[in-house]
Write a structure and sequence with these properties.
Blueprint lengths: L6 H7 L5 E5 L4 H7 L6 E5 L7 H13 L3 E5 L5 H9 L4 E4 L5 H11 L25 H11 L1 E6 L2 H5 L1 H6 L5 E4 L1 H7 L9 H16 L3 E6 L2 H10 L3 E6 H19 L1
């Protein structure tokens, strides 16, 4: 059996402060490069990039071979969008645009097997098409219910208003905070120092603590990563691969030109 354990889940459970990055470029080569940087996980973005499930499967494979835990952000919260990414081997899903408890209950039904949800069962890449799985159908369902992370985003006022109930639902493993869209939804776009936004962050962290769930935050700066962990987040996501590539090359080009 060659099925993989979810290393990100273990790191979150053990307080290891994992750091990840969004992945938009669709390049397995670049994914392999990131596996040599010390990052813990990647989020393959099916929402804001052209990446779809078939390309995600290739990127998941590259991440696995490079020592990265592959998560995917789904394009939407529909059953097909969720099921396809799980079946190609995503070890966790980030669910954007969440507005209500009822919506999250539907998401759980799509993403978790019986008895937690009603995820459709089929041998697929995730378990070596049935040849690498834990054993029986009940054992396989229990394994993937435990090892596959389901992480709704709190990025709307609807999700924020119901965050205590959402975080407490069986089948929700943690919450991912999308600061940009949350601030926009609150009518204070980009005003991250606004007291109302800061109170919202405190509320989300508190809800996760009460429910014994982890909480992950996004930031665009290394300083933001350190501040996020100090604030109490369990994991941090830093920027995205394309932005980091541009920034790194531009910095070196500017340095070379300054020396000419």
């Amino acid at each position: 059996m060659i099925i993989l354990k979810n290393e990100l889940k273990l790191k979150l459970k053990n307080g290891k402060k994992p750091i990840g990055m969004f992945f938009d470029t669709a390049s397995p080569y670049l994914m392999e490069c990131l596996g040599r940087t010390g990052l813990d996980f990647v989020i393959i973005d099916n929402e804001h990039s052209p990446i779809e499930a078939e390309t995600s499967a290739q990127l998941i494979r590259a991440a696995e071979l490079s020592g990265l835990t592959p998560l995917c952000r789904v394009r939407d919260s529909s059953r097909p969008a969720i099921l396809k990414l799980l079946d190609v081997g995503a070890q966790g899903l980030i669910i954007p645009n969440v507005h209500s408890v009822a919506q999250v209950e539907d998401i759980i039904s799509y993403a978790k097997y019986y008895p937690i949800g009603q995820r459709g069962f089929c041998p697929s890449r995730k378990d070596g098409w049935g040849f690498d799985g834990p054993g029986s159908v009940p054992e396989t369902m229990a394994y993937f219910n435990a090892e596959t992370l389901l992480i709704p985003q709190c990025e709307t006022v609807g999700a924020l208003s119901a965050i205590d109930e959402i975080a407490s639902l069986e089948g929700v493993d943690g919450i991912f905070v999308g600061p940009y869209d949350l601030s926009i939804s609150m009518g204070i776009p980009g005003q991250f120092d606004n007291p109302d936004f800061q109170a919202a962050i405190d509320r989300i962290i508190s809800a996760c603590r009460k429910a014994s769930k982890f909480c992950i935050f996004f930031t665009g700066s290394p300083e933001g990563v350190a501040a996020g962990f100090k604030r109490g987040f369990d994991g941090m996501t830093y920027s995205l691969d394309a932005a980091v590539f541009i920034d790194a090359v531009r910095e070196r080009v500017n340095k070379m030109r300054s020396m000419i």
